[in-house]
Design a protein that fits this description.
This protein is mainly alpha-helical and 204 residues long. It has nine helices and no strands. It has one domain.
């Protein structure tokens, strides 16, 4: 994929993480928790979700210094105790984020696949970047390490009698996540690459 203007990279990343976070809030609201709605966070206005460090500084630093992008938005607040289903509710809220990113990736992937020459090459490059970023967000967030969304699915699968395991994982979650990013992230790249090719028909 050819270089795309850095400003597009940041803009796409910001809107993708905003969609991700708003999806959490909408599903939580549908399941009985109004926290995000009351906080005014069920909006796609990026100004309501931006985290100065995670949405601007970290993405710029990782892109300019390492050639990759990494960042986050302010998490949408929700109270799991308000959810009607206490066991599976948090997992559904967690899955909403990655599912929204995969939906965005599929939408733009269809545009790329069935372009039929109607779109410019510049637009196709940007659409490819949208697909790529959203696949990364979806796959990365499905990793079952707190505070990532995949951990909520993992904890829903753990029987109540083993709840102490959840406590231990949460206690060391940040350390595990940092270790994964620096030493194991390369192992999920084939999944990201495979999904990109499956969705768009092109290889990275």
């Amino acid at each position: 994929m050819q270089e795309v203007n850095f400003i597009f990279v940041i803009a796409i990343l910001i809107m993708s993480v905003v969609i991700h976070e708003v999806s959490h809030g909408y599903v939580a609201s549908m399941l009985g928790d109004p926290t995000a709605k009351l906080a005014g966070r069920l909006t796609l206005n990026p100004l309501k979700h931006l985290d100065f460090l995670g949405s601007l500084i970290v993405p710029m630093a990782t892109y300019l210094l390492g050639g990759f992008i990494f960042g986050w938005a302010k998490p949408v607040p929700y109270n799991p105790y308000n959810l009607r289903n206490q066991k599976w509710g948090p997992a559904l809220v967690g899955l909403a984020g990655p599912f929204s990113n995969l939906s965005v990736a599929l939408f733009f992937g269809v545009i790329i696949r069935f372009n039929m020459g109607f779109s410019s090459m510049a637009f196709i490059q940007i659409a490819g970047l949208v697909v790529f970023i959203n696949i990364i967000l979806a796959v990365f967030n499905l990793i079952p390490i707190p505070p990532l969304d995949g951990s909520k699915v993992l904890f829903a699968l753990i029987p109540y009698r083993y709840s102490h395991i959840q406590t231990k994982i949460e206690q060391y979650g940040l350390i595990l996540l940092i270790f994964f990013i620096f030493f194991l992230f390369q192992f999920i790249f084939p999944i990201i690459s495979g999904l990109f090719q499956l969705i768009t028909g092109f290889s990275l």
